[in-house]
Specification:
Layout: H1 20-40, H2 44-64, H3 90-96, H4 113-136, H5 138-142, E1 144-145, E2 152-153, H6 154-173, H7 178-198, E3 203-208, E4 215-221, E5 224-229, E6 238-241, H8 243-246, H9 253-258, E7 262-265, H10 267-271, H11 274-279, H12 286-295
Parallel strand pairs: 3-6
Antiparallel strand pairs: 1-2, 3-4, 4-5, 6-7
Helix pairs in contact: 1-4, 1-6, 1-7, 6-7
C-alpha cells in the first residue's frame, strides 16, 4: 500500500452514507455471529469426517456446488484472526492516517483451536475500534487507500470483511448464521458497486434471497455508488438464491442454475459488469460473477432465466 490517496468527500460512497448505528450493528453483529459459530460446536469436526466419508461415496456434487467442504475445521478461520505482527486492519488504518504500513508477518503455521478463537476475538475488537474511529471522523472513513482490489475507501474495506468472514464460517461449520449472511451479502454488493464506480461503469445490480429474504443492491454512476437493502418492488439485474449459494467461493453455476438454486435476473444488466471480472481477479463473489456472465450465452435452455 505504498500510494497515498486523498479522501473524496463529495458524492455517495455506498455504506458510508448509511446511518452509523445500523452500519455498526450489522458489521459487529456479523462478527459476533462468526464468533458464536466458531465456539458453538466442538463435535463438528467429527461429524465433518462422517460427511467426508459420505461424499467419497457419491456426494462430490454437493461439495462442488457450494457444500461445506471441510466443515468443523476451524483452521479455515485462522486468516480472519488478528495475530502478533499481523493485526487485523493494521495496514488499512496505518494508510488511512498516512503512516508507514507495517510489515505483515505470517500467522502461526498450525494454530490450536484456543489460539484461533482468541485471534478471532481480538479481530472483532480491532474492527470495533476501527469503526468507532472512522464513524467519529467521516472523512477518515472516506479516505481512499490501497487494497488487494486496488484503491478503495477505508470504510468500504472495513465493511468488506463481512464477505470473507461469511465464506470462512460456511466452510468451517457448514452453515452461515443470518446476521453473518446479511453482512456478507452487503459486503459483496457494496464492493462491486465501488468497483463499478471506480471503473466508470454505470450499473445497478444486487444479490438477494427469494420470498423477501436477505438482499442488497447497488447503483453506481459518475458521482459514486449507493448501497441499500433490496425492496420487494425492485426490478434490477442480479442473482437470486439462498445466501449459502450466493456466498460460495467455488461451485458450478450452470448446475446451480439447473437445479434452481440460483437464478439470474435481468441478464443484460449483469453483462455490463463483465469488465470488472477481467480487471479485478480477487473480486468478492468473482467466481460466481465470472461463471454467471460467461455462462449466460449457454443457459437459455436452463431454468432460472427471464
Amino acid at each position: 500500500m505504498g500510494e497515498d490517496h486523498q479522501p473524496v468527500l463529495h458524492g455517495p460512497r455506498g455504506v458510508a452514507d448509511e446511518p452509523p448505528d445500523t452500519l455498526r450493528a450489522r458489521i459487529l453483529g456479523g462478527w459476533d455471529a462468526a464468533l458464536t459459530a466458531a465456539q458453538a460446536d466442538e463435535g463438528a469436526a467429527e461429524r465433518a469426517d462422517e460427511r467426508a466419508d459420505e461424499a467419497a461415496d457419491g456426494g462430490a456434487d454437493e461439495r462442488a456446488d457450494g457444500g461445506a467442504g471441510a466443515a468443523g475445521d476451524l483452521r479455515v478461520l485462522a486468516e480472519l484472526g488478528s495475530w502478533p505482527g499481523r493485526p487485523v486492519l493494521g495496514a488499512v488504518m496505518a494508510a488511512a492516517h498516512g503512516l508507514p504500513v507495517p510489515e505483515r508477518r505470517p500467522k502461526p503455521f498450525d494454530p490450536s483451536r484456543e489460539e484461533i478463537l482468541a485471534a478471532l476475538a481480538e479481530a472483532r475488537e480491532r474492527v470495533a475500534a476501527a469503526l468507532d474511529e472512522v464513524l467519529a471522523v467521516p472523512e477518515l472513513g472516506r479516505r481512499i487507500v490501497d487494497s488487494p482490489l486496488g484503491p478503495l475507501p477505508v470504510l468500504t474495506q472495513i465493511h468488506a470483511m463481512g464477505h470473507e468472514a461469511a465464506q470462512a464460517v460456511q466452510t468451517a461449520t457448514g452453515s452461515v448464521p443470518p446476521p453473518l449472511a446479511d453482512a456478507g451479502l452487503a459486503a459483496m454488493v457494496d464492493v462491486v458497486g465501488a468497483l463499478a464506480w471506480r471503473s466508470r461503469i454505470p450499473a445497478s445490480a444486487g444479490l438477494w434471497e427469494p420470498d423477501g429474504g436477505l438482499g442488497w443492491v447497488f447503483t453506481a454512476d459518475a458521482d459514486g455508488w449507493r448501497t441499500r437493502r433490496r425492496e420487494p418492488a425492485d426490478d434490477l439485474p442480479g442473482v437470486e438464491g439462498a445466501a449459502r449459494h450466493l456466498l460460495v467461493s467455488t461451485g458450478s453455476v450452470p448446475a446451480m442454475l439447473a437445479r434452481g438454486e440460483i437464478r439470474l435476473r435481468r441478464v443484460g444488466g449483469l453483462l455490463a459488469l463483465a469488465p470488472l471480472v477481467d480487471q479485478v481477479p480477487n473480486l468478492p463473489g468473482g467466481p460466481l460473477l465470472r461463471k454467471a456472465v460467461g455462462a449466460v450465452s449457454l443457459l437459455g435452455r436452463l431454468p432460472g432465466l427471464r
